[in-house]
Write a structure and sequence with these properties.
The chain is mainly alpha-helical and 395 residues long. Helices cover 61% and strands 1% of the residues. The protein has helices spanning 5-16, 22-37, 41-54, 65-88, 101-118, 124-140, 142-158, 166-175, 177-183, 192-202, 212-228, 253-256, 291-309, 313-316, 332-336, 339-349, 352-368, 375-388, 390-394; strands spanning 276-277, 283-284.
């Protein structure tokens, strides 16, 4: 359908109005998806709209409109994914407009521009909407999203002035772990496994009691990796690797949409992602990671973290001795992070040898140190150990 200038002005006014309610921004977001599916003036209007709104998503341009932009981006990507799901799930409505591959690409490019600007916004709602938008769109077009996510993560690690961006970069990468594995996206220099293994080692220093946001992001990333693979196998493991989700050749929704990803020029999402076969026709997935060293460093930093979070009985005051239930208050680890899920997945995904080793470290930690103010966090680890490795826990 054609979209005259008056309609574009009306859509812009709907987004910019300070008194508008979220449903109106959501309706405008749906119009944006329909504009991307159209041709001519309508598609050009979408590009003009994104060019206009892009400056308002910049971190230095935060204001009352940031919440409206978050609603617009969240509803737009949701509606886009919903239409694609009905279209390729063969559950479409009679006469429903079909989004062809070219139009879908155009919308992905437009939404990624807004999400890239809003990723480091000072408004949490816009940051959340941007990160989730990048996650959803990476299933559709990995080659347009994953290079941006990985590039910003590596830049935040390497640049001292960008360290404040590291928690958001890690969280975004965590959300994109599963589409990265499914697509098998890689660069010319590194395979998918190398990218993930290097990230797992690089974020270890982020487990820090003095930085809650970074610690939460690291646990989120580790949990995303561990929950996306059947088993964790390192480079030196002699045991047979377990199959990974997806095919050995990779694959994504882009294949269904008959897209050729922009990442093909840089390795793409085709062959060469490092997956092999176990001789039974089942693809295997092995990370180039020395699990023994990684596990020891994770546990060492985890025990140090719990020790730093523990304030000791003297900090609570003498009056609390009559109220022992107050000692069971959880720190931010138990409230705002995926700490509990991380440890459960870790013991279930590690090879039996290393899982027993972790249980042994936990037993040594339990008998040598008393940390009353992190009792809930410690008991969570012990409970996970008794469930995953009951024999080793009894010993």
């Amino acid at each position: 359908r054609q979209c005259p200038a008056a309609e574009l002005d009306g859509l812009t006014a709907t987004l910019a109005g300070e008194q508008q309610q979220p449903p109106q921004q959501g309706a405008a977001a749906g119009d944006g998806v329909q504009m991307s599916a159209a041709v001519g003036a309508a598609a050009d209007a979408l590009d003009s709209l994104v060019q206009l709104l892009e400056q308002y998503c910049h971190p230095s341009n935060t204001g009352a409109w940031s919440g409206d932009l978050a609603v617009f981006l969240r509803h737009g990507v949701h509606y886009f994914m919903k239409v694609l799901g009905r279209q390729y799930g063969r559950a479409g409505w009679p006469g429903e407009q079909v989004i062809v591959a070219t139009a879908a690409r155009r919308y992905v490019r437009a939404a990624v521009k807004l999400a890239a600007r809003g990723q480091y916004s000072k408004r949490d709602s816009l940051v959340s909407a941007s990160c989730k938008a990048l996650c959803h769109l990476s299933y559709v077009w990995p080659g347009a999203v994953l290079p941006l996510v990985l590039g910003r993560f590596q830049s935040a690690l390497a640049t001292a002035t960008a360290m404040h961006q590291l928690p958001t970069s890690i969280s975004t990468l965590a959300l994109c772990v599963r589409p990265l594995l499914l697509a098998g996206w890689h660069t010319k220099e590194e395979s998918t496994q190398q990218l993930i293994a290097e990230a797992m080692m690089a974020v270890l220093p982020g487990i820090d009691a003095n930085d809650e946001g970074k610690t939460a992001a690291v646990f989120q990333f580790y949990t995303a990796v561990l929950s996306s693979i059947p088993a964790l196998h390192g480079a030196a493991e002699e045991e047979e690797a377990a199959p990974v989700y997806g095919s050995a050749e990779g694959g994504s929704a882009m294949d269904v949409l008959e897209f050729s990803t922009a990442g093909d020029a840089a390795g793409g999402n085709g062959n060469g992602n490092g997956n092999g076969s176990n001789g039974k026709g089942v693809p295997v997935y092995t990370l180039p990671l020395y699990l023994d060293d990684w596990v020891d460093q994770v546990m060492e930093r985890l025990f140090t973290l719990l020790g730093n979070l523990d304030t000791g009985p003297s900090h609570r005051g003498m009056d609390q001795q009559a109220k022992p239930e107050l000692l069971l208050q959880s720190t931010y680890l138990g409230k705002d992070t995926l700490y509990h899920s991380f440890f459960q997945h870790l013991l279930l995904r590690l090879p039996p040898r290393l899982a027993d080793h972790v249980v042994g470290l936990l037993g040594q930690f339990a008998t040598e140190r008393a940390l009353p103010t992190v009792a809930l966090e410690a008991s969570s680890m012990f409970r996970s150990a008794s469930i995953a490795r009951p024999a080793a826990a009894v010993e």
